[in-house]
Amino acid sequence: MFKKMFGGSAEAEAKGSRFTPRTPSGPRTIRHSSAWGLTLKALKENGGGTVMDVGPTSPTNINFLTNLSCSVYMPDPLYDANTQDWMTGEPDDEGKPTFDSQRFMAESFSFSGRVFDAVLLWDTLDFLPEPLVQPVVDSLAQVTRPGGKILAFFHQQARNGEAPQHRRYHITDSDAVEFQTGSGYQHLRSQQNRNIERLFQAFSALKFMLASDNIREVVITR
């Protein structure tokens, strides 16, 4: 069973929008992913389950996961954070915009008592506004089943100083994923291991893998 829980068309204009995000539609590039390989193994061993796939709708992911007998839910907090007027209008001490994170979580990242066996978080946390990062992770701690897995990617700053681009990932029946760029989200932070461990301190274990394309992959166990 597939359910698109939140959001509408990524091309639609929305009130309070700082910019209109685009659904990645360019060519797909394939990359090896040890983290996806581990997550896929867990899904197959458990005979399916309930999976949260964060990001714009991916028919590839829907078809693949439903063929594994998974129920699929696809929230898109980046879209919601960038197209809804969640800013309070009062900047913080550094002049940065502040968010009504409590209302955001209640309206855009609430799951009505559902629990998940796996969460495909991808690179969402690198592009999510800072006031929403820890609340999203804390919510995942509440809705991920004990022993469940979260797959997360973190971009490392490129040596040439070029800002990393947000990617939409499409899964395969192997330890590889395909990705597309072009959504237009701004890269907001590069996380080091210690920061990631602090973010996910409510979880039982983290496994780090550094890929060759400046992406730190992490499989987090609840």
Proportion of residues in extended strands: 25-35%
What's the end-to-end separation, in Å? 24 Å
Number of separate helices: 7
Shape: globular
Let me know the average pLDDT. 87
Side-by-side strand order of the widest sheet: 1-4-3-5-6-10-9
Query: Helix/strand/pairing class, anyone?
Result: alpha/beta
Helix content class: 25-40%
CATH topology name, in short, is Rossmann fold
- Main sheet? 7 strands, mixed
Spans where pLDDT lies below 50 across 5 or more residues: 1-17
Sketch the topology as an H/E string, one letter per element: EEHEHEHHEHHEEEHEE
CATH class: Alpha Beta
* CATH-defined superfamily: Vaccinia Virus protein VP39
Gyration radius (Cα, Å) is 17 Å
Describe the fold and architecture.
The protein has a single domain (2-7, 23-221), classed as 3-Layer(aba) Sandwich (Rossmann fold). The protein is α/β, with parallel strands linked by helices. It has a seven-stranded mixed sheet. Strands 2-8-7 form a three-stranded antiparallel sheet. It has helices at 34-45, 59-67, 77-83, 101-108, 124-127, 130-143, 193-199, and strands at residues 2-3, 29-32, 49-53, 70-73, 116-122, 144-155, 167-171, 176-181, 205-210, 215-221. Helices cover 27% and strands 26% of the residues. It is built from seven helices and ten strands.
Quick rundown:
The protein is of the alpha/beta class. The protein has helices at residues 34-45, 59-67, 77-83, 101-108, 124-127, 130-143, 193-199; strands at 2-3, 29-32, 49-53, 70-73, 116-122, 144-155, 167-171, 176-181, 205-210, 215-221. The model is unreliable at 1-17 (pLDDT under 50).
